[in-house]
Fold each of these.
Amino acid sequence: MKIELFTTVHYLEIQPRLDGFYLREFLIVQDYRELGPLLDPDLINALGIIHKNQIENNPVMYLMQYEVDDFVIGGEGDMWTEIISTLLLCFWFIKDNSISNAAIFIREVEPNPKIVLRYPNRTYNAKGEISNTVYNRDELNSVFMLIPKIINLRTVSNLDFFEKTGLSDMPMPLDVQYHPELFTKVYRALTHLETLRETKHISRKIFHYVAILECLFTRNEPISMEKDINNCKKNVSNEKEKQFNIAEPVMEKVQSITSMVRQRVVSYLGGNLKEKKEIANNITVAYDIRSKYVHGQAIPGKLMTKTSQIKYALRMDSLVRVIFNKIILTDLEFFLLPEDEFESYIKSKINP
């Protein structure tokens, strides 16, 4: 079947103004009237006053008469939400933003005209706010260069679900059946990036920034807490000691992960002593906020204030962006290695 798809893009400004530009197959124009006959005026009028106002006052993202499988329209239109969100996510790799799209209209052109409506999630910047972000022509070019790289990292091409879309190199949705052996550490990190951008809660954002670092810089294996606890029980002599000591090996392992992530990030990014200390301190504070938040405890002292947490959210956002860009642009082959080979690589950064 043939479809056309359009949605509005919010909180994106292009300066100086462009008549239109493409994100892959999607044409973005700053005024829907620039689409001319491509977008049916009668269709716009039929959408209702709220949707019509959005289209008239925001850039429009348009996909013209694309040939797809029945599968997409038939209950799986959320695939298109994932595709568009992945394309818009690429803007984050250049600078922080709250760019998102509104309702997605998927119109079946042939054989039976009808419209399917999808609502995406709102995105927020590192401050948990929404505001316009300006991109110039050079920054747009950087976004265009990143798009195929990000799409490839979000693709698992041998899943039947993915292949049915007819888009052999578009991003895979997150709600497919989970196949952990197919997901790289970079893919897992990207899912956390997408999730943190959907919340305005600062502590929750910091939780996901830390999770990104753990995805990228730790080995992909579970912490066997049950095994640790059973070993601990064997090594203590009475019930009171058991209650007191069971948590200790678990806490030691958590602390060792914190130290390992901090050391590996600092070694990977390098820099002078001042820069390394600043990175290490930001990671330490982020871990502290993450730990208190996850365990339902009060965040201590000055970190309790939203202003203070925003400061560290902005620092972590910047740090994670630098890491992602370095990995994607220069070191991707190492972060896609099997776990044992990756461990050898990252350890060589620490002890060259």
Amino acid sequence: MCGIVGIQGLQEDASIIAMNEQIVHRGPDGEGVFRHRDNHLSLAMRRLAIIDLAGGVQPMSTPDGLYTIVFNGEIFNAPDLRKELENKGMAFQTDHSDTEVVLNYYALEGPAMVERLNGMFALAIYDRAKKTLFCARDRAGIKPFYYCDDGRRFAFASELKSILALPDFARRVDRQSLFHYISLMYVPSQRTAIEGVRRLGPGQSLTFHFSDRRLEVKSWWRLSFNEDKSLSVGQWRERLRATLSAATDRWTLADVPYGCLLSGGLDSSAIVGLLAERGADIKTFSLGFSGPGEEQWSELPLARSMADKWGTEHHQIILDPQSLLDDLGSMVWHMDEPYGGGLPSWSVFKFLGDHVKVALTGTGGDELFGNYNKFSGLERRFLPGLSAGTHAPSEDRFRRGFSDRHYYCSDADKRRHVFAGDCTGLIDTSALLYGHLAAQESEALRNRTTRVDFETQLPEEFLAMTDRFSMAHHVEARTPFLDNHMIDLAMSVPPSLRLNPRRYKQLLRDTIGDLLPSDVLDAPKRGFVVPLKLWLRDQLRPLVKHLLNPHRLAAQGIFRPAFYDHTVRPHLDGEADNTTLVWGALMFQIWHQVFIEQPSPQAPTWDLKAIGA
């Protein structure tokens, strides 16, 4: 696990160093730089040593010097791939580095080798003979990959802030991305919050040709549904149990200690139970808040029940919500892009960083098994009886029955009340989401809604947040539910069986139910409740009034000055509950100060509370 950066084109020697220094937190265990001056190429990385601690140093080249790689991630089938290559006569220089496996497989098969990789990765491989860079991102988008090409230089990085460290880089807000952000509270798709910077999507690759500066982006994998009606419910349970168990075992591959995040929910409990069933020695970590009313929604008792059942070494993190406010500036800097979603995971990884280097999480389980049954409203209200149908609803029905119901601000309201200037050229967020829903023919409606979440919210909100918050504290977060075999198997379950509109995750509950205490198995889905509504009216009130006042909004030219009186002031005065929209706008403004208004994108050292004083 590490962070990677690279430049091809006009550059100073200091540029690659400046990019790499922005991501020291991703790799405190070492660094490396590779230059090929004739081809104006520089590659660099920061290393968090997890596998083959003594070897695995990057950038890594083949003995003949034809190929050089920088690689971020872990390949969990690397031991098997290594045996295949050794059987073909290929020699290895390291003891068991997965980076060398990827490099050697590329030397043998070229870009097609990414289809063999089971794990999480973002990589760049330099082909000296062809004068190309081949870059790729894993299937689910667990690891990030940003890039830009301004005609003078092509640059890539694990984090956006590295690209912003390039000299003379113009930092301007991408209005289309911000338009989507206000609805979603994260930036979706391949555009980013900064004009001119893009990200590879999940399952995409990029080939950059030095000679003519041609850039080719392709999808090497996309979620597919291969429905298998031949198995009984009991057989599906057996196969899912065996596949998830094998995936969980695979994703513990490490030469350093690991732990498990245990929320008390179904997904993280399943991972802990499957590991404990095989006799693994497990450290578990759970988060709860102090303060009035906490006991009504805390999952600490459920997590403790699971830990007691299996005798794990259990750690409870009791957090004063105020401490999240103290770290808010750091969170914004590490996230890279505007984010108005959940923050408590920051504190979990902050604690984990003092105990383990690897943490298994249940991320991905929701998306595989229904994501809060978001599909059911669309079926019930607009397409009754069509759950097994293979056509998409109309775009208008999708907007009314899905996007306007599940997201935070409608496209119409954004145009009327939020954004200044001409918005006619901006694509509606509902249209963006509908593009994913209607992308493939002959998919059941329930599968179509799964695709929307799998290709948008999962990679660019949940996995992005997990990556940034874990790496900020030198922890590698792993997601066994997103193992290749688990994804493929889950997507072959008939949607009428995989997704139950009457009971959330029924199939998964039945699959792993014997591993969980009854109180965990039967508990309703919960989440961390951060008192944002009260924060905005109390501790954050001065900051809100400072960053969202009409005079600042008018000078900035992004939001309507009237946004304050229409949305912000009524919330502050208790006349309306506009928590999410005000919070999202505030988080954007903090991001804007850090990444646009500061002379350089450095980690903030200012006191957020003092700004509004």
Amino acid sequence: MNNLYIDICVPFFLYNQCPLRMYITELILYHYQYIINHCKEKMNTEITMTFIGSEKEISKNFISKHFQCEYTYHEFEQGNIKVGYNQHFLNMLTQKFRFAFQKSMEKKPNISLLAGSNDYISLNFFEQIIQYYKPDNDQLFGIDNFYNGENKTTLDCFDGKNFLSELIWSTGFSNYANRQKYKYIGGIIGFNNTLYNKYYHQLMNNIISYDEGEIEYKTLQLSNIDKFNSKEVYFINIKTKNSSEITPFDILKKNNKSEILSFSSFPTNFQSTFLIQYNKFIKKNTFNNTIN
């Protein structure tokens, strides 16, 4: 009997109701409802969501329309800041992430996680952290790269009609921009209650930032951190090719080119499970029905 409580906070922005961004986020919400129901029925674990929007009624109404499980919604004022890797935007994003974790931790879950609004996290990640949870340890959770558990990341893109016919798989290892020291590949990161209660002020004032790799690195500088090591988990970063992306699809594709993996080389059981899960996910709805 696990009897755990997990809260997942998701900061999001719809870019003035960008249809492609709204569609991808709506699919992610659908995926989390599947995860919530599975973990409750199969693993005796309660999962709730904390959504952090910044477009007032647009954001709030979007969540109420597309999410039917238990959640809380909070508004974060991010101002009129140009999207991209400029310091003003990144500083704002750090504050938004801290605000998200704050609101999640106020619920006092056993595990508090932060996930991207366009990031598909495989079900087995949640199954593994539920099994791994240890209330006596200070625990950090995230998805490791390929070289530390055969985890995988992939890049998908939606153009308004189709997703990619062939996904771009990679190890998640970052051999650029001095990121080699980071083991977690992004998508989702978080802490158990033992850690966040003990180090709350350090988390909110120094550790939590817009960069999951930096969160991992700084957390591991604390004493006796129990770092979760995922196994055969995958995470999909779903992009568009418009201005609603902080890191554009083409840049990510270029940065990952030296760490590309071939889907055909993966174990057959992984291939079949992935195809069943992801095809069900992207076929959940049609783009036109979603935006109408």
Amino acid sequence: MSVETGAHEPARDACRDAVSGVWPIHVRLSAHRMRPSNTTAPSCAKHYWSLGSDHFLCCKKLQKTIAADAMPGVYTVYYHEGFTGRAQPLEMMLAASKATNFCEWKRAPWNTLDDPTCFAAPAVAHDQTKKVISQTTAAAQWLGSELRFFPPTGIRAEAAKLAMDIAEVWSEAYGKRRGAPSWAAVEDFISGRLLKWFGVMEATAQKHGKGSWVIGSVPTYVDFLLCNLIETILFLFGEARLAPLKAAAPKLFASYAATLAIPGVSECKSEFPVLYGKVGAEGAMPFA
């Protein structure tokens, strides 16, 4: 591939990942042409796309490579009705991609999925190929690769590690809300174990993220998983109780705000609550 000289590392990474089959969010397919998610596609053969401090290379050969391997179509998210829970990050990614005309998606009740490979919700399916993936982290990784919310080649293991941290914290927080005997016990959990977890995730994001994002310099599936985690703990514990976490993990909360600002995401979030009322901060304590 012939490219203009002067490309710095982010540009080279974007070009390399595009050829290998994984592309950053700013390289998007809309209808039959390429364009960044929030600007106009250049008509020239070679051009830099700029967003903040990152520059991504575009050329005719790269356009053809991406267009040939894109997976447009309709995706279905299977989950319980009335709230979004662990399906929320999958829905947010799909909503963001729909906002750029990259795909369509819909919801379906969990009990309508007949697939022996799936044990529990959520699951996401591609209607045209019949591919189905369950387990939130695995489904998010797959959608990230299909919808261009995937991390750079060199830090994919770190992305998976942070995604698994998020899954652990989600389970612990949900279990603590349901099992705690009092709000005092919840506050001890927040100021102790949960604060330690957020410190670990913040350190990971500071080391491997750039700008507002926790892995690399563009939004990835990990940012959507983190957004769902913060939405969940806000629902479970209430905003006032999370002050220690906000102070200790500014980059995580910056990612949360930036993810919600992606077109389509806030609208998706507002359609259903993240969890059911009884387990929320206004619900009974102990949980009943």
